[in-house]
């Protein structure tokens, strides 16, 4: 059999497996989940387009003499201009890049830490379990945004939005740890884990090769739901003045400027368009997360919630 024939066979087998996947079939039959997926895809495309099309320094600089100040939405300025005569349209598009970049890092870091702590707590139990989970319980006892506000002050201001990422990573870690610990405890009840131990598997191999793959369903759902939450929390911290530097085209900073200066002068478009894009993005992740949860296992609703 030639290389091309083998490649074609492999490609067909992959396609056939995807078509026969109960998860994908269930997911794509959910119209709300598909809607969320489309919204997320559009936001990602917009973010990449803005990142490689617009110059950040130009978006942050004042544009007096080039654009009219506080111009209402028009054909020339679809989202209007702000008090610094900056075109709001490219700034809102570039805000999608900030949301995708910092949201991804936040969710990835909190997932890595939470999954590691949750699996270790479930596997070793006793003192290790008590120390890890009681620490997680303490962090969960505080309102998430208030805890993030307290933690963000630990980091130097020079870090900008990375301060918000670090604070939110610590805030979200307990959620993943609790979900993964519960899923790992169920996996450890299965007989094959005892059989794997009897065959001489080391602890790292058992955790990574056998327990972790069977916990991927709740991890995936929790990550998707937390993605939207991370984006809105980063915007909230920027809105409150923790994170983004003045002039940065983040949705939270634009909302803050719009509420502080635009609404009183009747310039509603300062905050309306960033808020609309923020709401649609978070809605997309919530719809996709709910659809993935139902497609993977409807009983997972109790575990994730």
Topology:
Blueprint (H helix, E strand, L loop, with lengths): L2 H18 L1 H7 L2 H23 L2 H5 L27 H37 L1 H15 L3 H9 L8 H28 L2 H8 L4 H9 L4 H24 L11 H12 L6 H28 L3 H5 L1
Helix pairs in contact: 2-13, 3-5, 3-13, 5-6, 5-8, 5-11, 5-13, 6-8, 7-8, 8-11, 11-12, 11-13, 12-13
Give an account of the 3D structure:
The protein has helices at 3-20, 22-28, 31-53, 56-60, 88-124, 126-140, 144-152, 161-188, 191-198, 203-211, 216-239, 251-262, 269-296, 300-304. The chain is mainly α and 305 residues long. The protein contains 14 helices and no strands. The longest helix has 37 residues, at 88-124. Helix 5 crosses helix 11.
* Strand percentage: under 5%
How much helix, percentage-wise, in residues? over 70%
How many individual β-strands?
0
Rounded to the nearest angstrom, the radius of gyration is: 23 Å
Largest sheet: none
Shape: elongated
Mean pLDDT: 83
Spans with pLDDT under 50 lasting ≥5 residues? 1-11, 300-305
Q: What is the string of SSEs from the N terminus onward?
A: HHHHHHHHHHHHHH
Estimated structural class? mainly alpha
Quickly count the helices: 14
First-residue to last-residue Cα separation: 51 Å
Task: Give the structure's gist in a few sentences.
With 305 residues, the protein is mainly α.
Summarize this structure as a short list of keywords or feature phrases:
305 residues; disordered N terminus; elongated; 14 helices; mainly alpha; single chain; 0% strand
């Amino acid at each position: 059999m030639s290389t091309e024939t083998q490649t074609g066979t492999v490609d067909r087998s992959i396609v056939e497996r995807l078509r026969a996947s109960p998860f994908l079939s269930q997911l794509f039959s959910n119209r709300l989940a598909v809607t969320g997926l489309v919204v997320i895809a559009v936001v990602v495309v917009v973010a990449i387009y803005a990142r490689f099309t617009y110059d950040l320094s130009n978006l942050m600089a004042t544009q007096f003499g080039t654009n009219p100040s506080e111009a209402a939405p028009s054909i020339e300025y679809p989202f209007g201009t702000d008090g610094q005569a900056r075109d709001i349209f490219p700034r809102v598009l570039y805000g999608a890049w900030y949301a995708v970049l910092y949201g991804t890092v936040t969710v990835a870091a909190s997932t890595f830490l939470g999954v590691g702590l949750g699996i270790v707590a479930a596997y070793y139990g006793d003192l290790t379990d008590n120390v890890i989970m009681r620490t997680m319980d303490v962090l969960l006892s505080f309102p998430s945004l208030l805890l993030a506000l307290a933690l963000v002050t630990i980091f130097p201001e020079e870090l900008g939005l990375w301060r918000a990422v670090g604070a939110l990573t610590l805030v979200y870690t307990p959620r993943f740890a609790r979900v993964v610990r519960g899923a790992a405890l169920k996996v450890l009840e299965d007989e094959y884990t005892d059989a794997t131990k009897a065959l001489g598997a080391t602890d790292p191999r058992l955790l990574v090769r056998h327990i972790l793959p069977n916990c991927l369903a709740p991890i995936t759902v929790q990550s998707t739901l937390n993605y939207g939450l991370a984006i809105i929390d980063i915007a909230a911290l920027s809105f409150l003045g923790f994170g983004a530097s003045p002039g940065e085209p983040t949705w939270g900073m634009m909302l803050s400027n719009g509420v502080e200066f635009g609404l009183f002068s009747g310039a509603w478009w300062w905050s309306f368009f960033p808020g609309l894009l923020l709401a649609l993005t978070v809605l997309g992740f919530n719809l996709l997360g709910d659809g993935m949860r139902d497609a993977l296992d409807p009983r997972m609703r109790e575990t994730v919630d």
